Amino acid sequence: MLTPANPTTQAAADDAILVVDNIVVRFETPEGPIVAVDDVSLKVKPGEFLSVIGPSGCGKSTLFNVVGGLLSDHQGTVNVAGETISGPHQSIGMVFQEESTFPWRTVTDNVAFPLELTGMPKAQRIERARHFIALVGLDGFENRYPGELSGGMRQRVSLARTLASEPKILLMDEPFAALDEQTRLLLGDKVLQIQQALKQTTLLITHNITEAVQMSDRIVVMTYRPGKVKRIVDIDLPRPRTSEIVGSEAFGRYVAQIWADLREEASRGMRDEEKHTLEHHKGGAS
Amino acid sequence: MAETLRLRRAAVPAPAVSQVTVLRVVIILTLLASWELLARSGWLYRDVVPSLFAISRAIFDLLSHGEYYFHLAVTAGEIGTALLIGGFAGLAVGILLGANRYLAKAFEPYLYYLGPTPKIIFFPIMIMWFGVGPGSKIALGTLSCFFPVALSAAAGMRGIDKVLIRVGKSFRASTWQMVTKIYLPAMRHPIINGVRLGLGVALIGTLLAETKLSNKGIGFLIINAYSTFDMPRLYAMLIVLFVLSIGANALVGRLGGLEGIKRF
């Protein structure tokens, strides 16, 4: 590259596919305004797996909604492939924490949903849907309804549905939070496998340290309210990874390091919550 | 969840003749026998309680003449039209109220007040507006049907799982796509329930209007039989109408039941 006129922006545009710049989100509450997200900036490189980890109340779900374009009342900008977003963007595919499959649609029709919205012919979208159903390992369940599947399987349907829209960036908000630990680890394997196969750029919001270390190239640790970036940790573990890595020594060191950072924040959050509960209790008693 | 449902279903044995069925048959037979005894006893004016034989013959006569089917078609057409107009109007208003908090706050209380009001009080106005023919009956049926559908749709709209709406938005669905692919299917149970209630009240409204003032339709036939004191025919029509209502309700219920399999 020859000396560009503006080296920083040029470099940013070149190697980051997602640029989150100085995001500030304030909420009005009955107890006065709170700053949920305070000046958060992130850059995600193509093919990178980045996790944002923080205690409850650090504004990470708010950040998820901002990046996904579902929350527009904020300061700062979100850039996707050089384009500033103003609402949901086709390059970003969201997977939600809550149960989000359509109960009235079969697995195939659920996964084909984003393709249906773009007006893709039926035969074509069913073929595409089947490809992504196989990718998440649900072949054989194409014609089942979500109500007939387990929670982990339904979450895989949601993942397949988002992947079917072929987003440049996969944005996930604690997608396995409602699942048990073993299912979560195995599903993590699946996500890793898919992410590595598709070289899928991924931004994962989580509060689970194991999950974050298992999957990420980098982890952004957030502070408790107001949510700021506390530290960014590079996870230098070999790829391809599976859940077996959980037993390795290097893995343990990363977990310990992140927990040391997170512990302080989480206990701040806990004290804050206790204080609130006490005040609430007093208020109620008087 | 699905497993437990299936287990529960399998655990209930289905005997050839249940106790309920036996009880039902016994009660019905007893009622029929008492009726026949009363008819033959001569305690009441002749024909006020016609014999089962006379009623059966009247049913046969009724169903073997084309005239009845003409009137049936008139009434069915009125109810169907009322259900269609009232249903769609109710659905549209319900979705609007469900989607907009301010509109709901401003107008939904009126729906609750007007909903249970007997719509027959509006019949004189309807006659003046739409005439003595089917028009005024359709108007009354529509008015009856509108309220339960609108209220169910509004409640159903508010009951939609918010995350499904966020999913639709994240995939950049248009407003029309949101309505047809997310709102309406997500509201299918409350809507079907509203339509069932709507059908019931449309039936009542239309027939009531026909018995008040009309020149065709089932209600007209019933009042006609009453004024000529043709009791067997009157009972015959009531019985046939009763069976038809059960059939119509079962049909709508079946639509709802089939849908029910596909939910969580």
What would you say this structure looks like, in words?
The complex is a heterodimer of chains A (286) and B (264). Chain A has one domain (7-91, 167-285): 3-Layer(aba) Sandwich (Rossmann fold), CATH 3.40.50. Helix content of chain A is 41%, strand content 22%. Chain A is built from 9 helices and 10 strands. Chain A has helices at residues 7-15, 60-68, 107-111, 113-117, 122-135, 151-164, 181-198, 209-215, 249-285, and strands at 18-29, 32-44, 49-53, 75-80, 83-84, 92-95, 169-173, 201-206, 218-222, 229-234. In chain A, helix 5 packs across helix 6 and helix 8 runs antiparallel to helix 9. Chain A is globular and about 60 Å long. With 264 residues, chain B is mainly alpha-helical. Chain B has one domain (66-256): MetI-like (MetI-like fold). Chain B contains 12 helices and no strands. Chain B has helices at 2-11, 19-41, 52-63, 66-99, 101-114, 123-130, 134-158, 162-170, 175-186, 188-212, 218-227, 231-260. The longest helix of chain B has 34 residues, at 66-99. The radius of gyration of chain B is 23 Å and the shape is globular. Mean pLDDT of chain B is 86; it is low at 1-7 and 258-264. The A-B interface holds A 68-70, 87-88, 90, 92-94, 96, 98-100, 102-105, 113-114, 116-117, 145-148, 165 and B 1-2, 161, 163-164, 166-167, 169-174, 177, 181-182, 185-186, 188, 259, 262-264.
